[in-house]
Amino acid sequence: MLDYFTKTKEAFKRLATDKDGVVSFEYIIVAACIVAVVLAVFKTDTSISTALHNGIVKISSTMSGL
């Protein structure tokens, strides 16, 4: 467990000193915002959620019949 902590700590140190890491961090922030918007849409709009659920059910039932 301590080994993972040490590796993570070293990775964050490299990220903080690397100028390219700043760009990667910005992409992470943008991706998190996109995920938040998608989750908000799926939680509030039940028609999209229902359509997605029905599609997954149809695919899984077809796959189980193979």
UniProtKB/TrEMBL annotation:
Source superkingdom: Bacteria
Keywords, comma-separated and alphabetical: Membrane, Transmembrane, Transmembrane helix
Transmembrane stretches, start-end: 21-42
Protein name: Flp/Fap pilin component
